[in-house]
Amino acid sequence: MKRTSAAICLFTLCATVLFGCVPGAGSAQEPPEKTVGSPIVVGFSQVGAESEWRVANSESMKSALSEENGFELIFDDARNEQENQIRAIRTFIQQDVDYIVFSPRVETGWTSILQEARDAEIPVIVIDRDIQVEDRSLYTAYIGSDFRREGETAVRWLESLMQRRGKADRPLRIVHIQGTVGSSAQIGRTAALEAALERNPNWEIIAQELGDFTRAKAYEVMGAILEETKDIDVVYCENDGEALGAIDAMEEAGLTCNAGDGVIVISFDATKLGLTYCLAGKIALNVECNPLQGPYVADLIRRLERGETVEQIMHVDETAFDSFTITKEMIEGRGY
Ligand code: AHR
Question: Which end of the chain is more exposed for a tag (fewer CB within 10 A), N or C?
Fold first, then answer.
């Protein structure tokens, strides 16, 4: 790794000048030399700003990889285009940054650019969404969510609700609003729903549309669905923005959203705004997707700087909230 060897050379030079050869100096307990001198330069390609979640994720990265913490962050917003992300990563390589971090729009199409980063000996950290590459060693680590597990949490909750109500075998008419197709957030959450449909032959997807993880798009597609039918039991939205847009459309159409006698809305993210809707009963279940990944990235880089071996896959901690048990206090204490 280019920077680690540079740090080692720098350390060797300092050690020779200051202490002669002192084995063990510069051990894991000490701050990286570069936090004292030059900052660690990190190029970060953020996928966009499509949701509240994404804004919180960008803020988390900016505050963890700050100057005070010994970093220089070069932030690039790809405006939801993979091409822009590839271009930004190539620019980071030309700038010879110390680390490249990116949150991929979709899982595929990264092999060539990662090969370029490897040729330039720049370590790459993937955050938020995962990628699919044949050679996993093309990137150093992935820090993000286990999206399939998030989806499992949602569908198991729905199964258990139906069982408690003695309705496990009744037909369940589901509207599915998907996130950005090909992103691991969409793939994992969709896969869990599809597996639940296999287990529950009485569950039926009556409409499946793309909401692009945005409130505006979900409002639009939900409005079109409602022109066809209002006979809906569940709306499974793949993030809070979509849930809010779908709720707006349903309320305008005269439907009530709640886990009692209304439409059951399931969402992901658990942002403060999303949880406010959960507290009001409009979102029945909100599965957390934790955007506060900056500190994990900063910690990982520090460990790499110290020459430590790191896990290649790290999932962030996540939980879930339902409208039966959520309290105001739970929302107030949250960071996003
Ligand atoms: O990849 C995480 C997803 O992307 C979040 O659920 C969503 O809000 C965001 O835009």
Answer: N
pLDDT tops 60 at residue 176: yes
Q: What is the DSSP annotation of 237-290?
A: ESSHHHHHHHHHHHHHTT--B-TTTSBEEEEEE--HHHHHHHHTTSSSEEEE--
Residue 210 has pLDDT above 80, yes or no: yes
Q: Is 263 left (phi over 0), alpha (psi -120 to 50) or beta?
A: beta
Structure confidence at residue 229 (pLDDT): 98
Q: Which atom of ligand 1 is nearest to the CA of 240?
A: 8
- For 6-144+292-305, CATH gives 3.40.50.2300
| Cβ–Cβ under 8 Å, residues 331 and 276 | yes
The pLDDT score that the predictor gives to residue 333 is 84
pLDDT value of residue 15 = 27
Domain 147-289+322-332 sits in CATH at 3.40.50.2300
Residues with CB under 6 Å of ligand 1 are 50-51, 53-54, 128-129, 185, 213, 239, 268-269, 289
User: Which has the minimum average pLDDT: 26-40, 143-157, 292-306?
Assistant: 26-40
